[in-house]
Amino acid sequence: MPQDPTRPNVVVMHCHDLGRFLGCYGNQTVATPHLDALAADGVRFDRAFTTAPQCSPSRASLFTGRYPHVNGVLGLTHQDFAWDLHPAERHLGGLLRDQGYRSVLLGVQHESRARADEELAARLGFDHVDTTANRAEPVSLAAVDQLGQLVEGDRPFYLQVGFLEPHRMAGDRDEPGVMGFLGNHLEPDDSLGVAIPPYLLDTPSARTELAELQGAVRHMDAAAGRVLAELERLGASDNTIMVFTTDHGLALPRAKCSLYDPGLEVALIIRYPDGGWTGGQVHDALVSHVDLLPTLLAATGGAAGDNVHGRSFLPLLNGEEHPRRQEIFGEMTYHDYYDPRRCVRTERHKLVANFSSAPAFMDPSQGWMRRCRPKVQTEGLASYHPSLELYDLEADPAELTNLVDEPEQAGVVAELSAKLAEWMVQTKDPLVDGAVTSPLHTKTMNALLRA
Fold this sequence. Notes:
Blueprint: E1 9-15, H1 33-40, E2 43-45, E3 48-49, H2 55-64, H3 68-71, H4 92-98, E4 102-107, H5 117-124, E5 128-130, H6 136-151, E6 157-163, H7 204-233, E7 240-246, H8 261-264, E8 265-266, E9 268-271, E10 281-283, E11 287-288, H9 292-299, H10 314-317, E12 328-334, E13 338-345, E14 349-354, E15 388-392, H11 410-426, H12 439-450
Parallel strand pairs: 1-6, 1-7, 2-10, 3-11, 4-5, 4-6
Antiparallel strand pairs: 2-9, 3-8, 7-9, 12-13, 13-14, 14-15
Helix pairs in contact: 1-7, 6-7
């Protein structure tokens, strides 16, 4: 029996550490023709944000519609970081399978501690899981193979495709102390020049690193293009909701692992020709990653539960009235180390609350040597978090000047502090009651007690 044409397929492609580093978001030196074409034929969200500037918590929110401090993933899921979704948490793959979808996961998965494919399928609710490969090219080839089978099936399908690039990868060409973006299989790309983000110093080493990043992004874009082309070749594009996004911002200082916009900003491109989500539309409304799950469930005939924190923006996609979000919230608790922070971002302002005197930013360079350096942080590791930070995003989009102590900003600080505190209390943020204990702490204490 052929698929029901009134029930759209859903494909979610995502990658590591991209932010909005695509040509369609105004980055003129990066070559991303396939994703730019998707945006030109779809709907682009110019102010979409993740809930956390790090791999596992961001994905856990994306695929559950719930904040990290609620769904259980307050840090990385692999190795002894060992954070994991609470047992009752439901994943988008499982929710769509409950709606009658064939559900398949390929490539990068970082939202569950489970690692074996069979265990992942059972835990997250997928019919089929293959995480054998995580690099963009083999994952895209696996997706092409799966699409041929899925399109011929008698059920609508949900396909989740995760690419490793442009995550940093160790390679033989890296100088000592450096982990770059090339691994052993990529080449840098400065064919269109190199543009240094406004929050970083323009130095020769930064230009070298950005050229590497551009090469990795170009490679990922080619893999995404391979999947898009196969969907078109199979005649399935029109009745498929195609989503492309990333987990969080670029793996550069003051981006990834920070609550500044470069850490929380994400590309979000959606196309569904049969639904009218096409034509190169652009939306500037604030959107959070937690909003995607309820949107997709609504678009496929289902509904999110009352415990989901996001709200569907389906009316916005359908050209209907949709109340604009007044704010988005971001958080970080554990990554490389305990560094609890929370933030609220409105159309104009950002308030960041820091709960430990850690260094002023956590370095995502994954090496001893830092080739990119931020414009702030002149005292190096002698600079630490202040209690609160306030930024005027219109006057200071790079968030370089903390205004929290300016008398004329007292009203804004009070208003945003109240918003942030209310959100933390309503969502039962564990920071309200004190410090958060890590899984490794528990494991180590148990080992000592058994000795």
